[in-house]
Amino acid sequence: MKFIVFNILFANLLAIGTIKSKAAIHNPPSGDTVVVKLKNKNKVMIITAESKNLKSFLNVNLNQIIADIDSSFRRDSTLSNGGEMELALFQKDSLLKIRILKDVIRNSYKAVLEVREKDDSSQKTFQINSWYGKKEKRKNRIDDIFEIDLGWNNYLESGKIPADENKPYGLKPLSSNVISLRAMKNFYWSKEKPRFSTSVGVEISWNNYKYDNSVIITKGSESVSFDPFLADQRMIKSKLTVSWLNVPVMMHYRSRNSSFHFALGGFSGYRLGSHSKTKFDEKGSTKKDHVNTNFYLNSLQYGARVQVGFYGIDFFGQYNLNELFSKNKGPALTPISFGITI
Q1: Which residue has the higher pLDDT, 153 or 132?
Q2: Beta-bridge partners for 127
Q3: For the segment 203-253, what is each residue's pLDDT rounded down to a tens digit?
Q4: Domain extent at residue 91
Q5: Same structural domain, 190 and 251
Q6: For labelling, which of 22, 104, 115, 202 has a CA lying 20 to 30 Å from the CA of 292?
Q7: Do 123 and 170 lie in a common domain?
């Protein structure tokens, strides 16, 4: 890969060194700029304070330049991950400085050559700029992504939040939380402009639904019910927990000039388990109850997801397209969740 830069730069240097026979030179009216048109249709611009400065460059030992550049590149891996390399080469009457930069986004190179005459107190210079030569062929980029969701759960019934309607299964908004661990593979759409990508992966999610009212979720013979605690029992905590194995698929957009990013997609999942947990005070003593059952919950879920953020922190929103409970086995509740992704 590094020899691509050598070939481009050397071709330009050698072409200028034999400028009379291999290139056509166009002098602008001011006389301080020379455009060299090479055989391969590339162009090199030489900027010089005075035309006489060009003579010192044409006497530079090109063979020595090639050897020095090749030696320096073999010792330095700066450009392997993008960046800049600068070489200072001393000739008899001139100081030759070469800077080579790699543009990671465009996967291409820029070479800048400066020559300063040692005896020139005014430090007049001229430059040769070779912009974006041959581009290296590469495969589409693939990134590994690991994310954690920290957020809150609720659900809708006929477009309304049950707690607002004083339903027995209304939730405590700040205590009903969701935690998700997600591993994704991110595939970029384009080799040259990695602003758009698609990611797919696997996720484990724990959804906690903590009830605001003093009720216990109970599985009956036909459906679930939300029964009140006994008269001598004071509720401390009552909740339903559901764990899922999900497969998310997202389409991403990342801004070229800022850290803004946006993602839209969906998910489908299989229920791994569910249980209820109650904690209450009875005659001065604290008691706990833990029931593992399916509570007529749907075994499959699917829905839509959106993420928006800056740098490494996103805000997410998620909306299920099917209900929490099987049809006619419980209230028609559609889960929603929101929070931050880190």
Answers
A1: 153
A2: 47, 114
A3: 999 999 999 999 999 999 999 999 999 989 999 999 999 999 999 999 999
A4: 2-131
A5: yes
A6: 202
A7: no
How far is the C-alpha of 252 from the C-alpha of 260, rounded, in Å?
11
Q: How many whole angstroms separate alpha carbon 308 and alpha carbon 318?
A: 12
This prediction has a pTM of 0.60
Residue with token string 């530079």: 60
CA distance 118 to 109: 29
163 lies in the same domain as 284: yes
Contact, 244 vs 207, CB < 8 A?
yes
Q: For the packed helices 62-75 and 2-17, what is the interaxial angle rounded to 10 degrees?
A: 170
Task: Specify whether 61 is located in the same domain as 82.
Answer: yes
Between the alpha carbon of residue 251 and those of residues 204, 248, 319, 323, the distances in Å are 20, 10, 17, 25
pLDDT of residue 119: 54
> Tens digit of pLDDT for each residue in 154-209?
999 999 999 999 999 999 999 999 999 999 999 988 766 678 999 999 999 999 99
Split into its structural domains, the chain has a count of 2
- What is 229-285 written as a DSSP string? PPTTEEEEEEEEEEEEEEEEEEEEEE-SSSSEEEEEEEEEEEEEEEEEEEEEEETTE
Average pLDDT value over all residues in the chain:
75
In a domain, 136, yes or no: no
Tell me, yes or no, whether 274 and 295 share the same domain: yes
Angle at 14 between CA 59 and CA 2, to 5 degrees: 120
The residues pairing with 147 across neighbouring beta strands, listed in sequence order, are 182
Of 131, 153, 171, which residue is a domain's last? 131
Same domain, 169 and 67: no
More confident residue, 198 or 20: 198
Pairing of strands 196-210, 125-131: unpaired
* pLDDT at residue 43 greater than cutoff 90: no
Tell me, what's the pLDDT at 116? Answer: 55
Strand pairing category for 125-131 and 224-228: unpaired
Q: What distance in Å separates the CA atoms of residue 224 and residue 297, rounded to the nearest whole number? A: 9
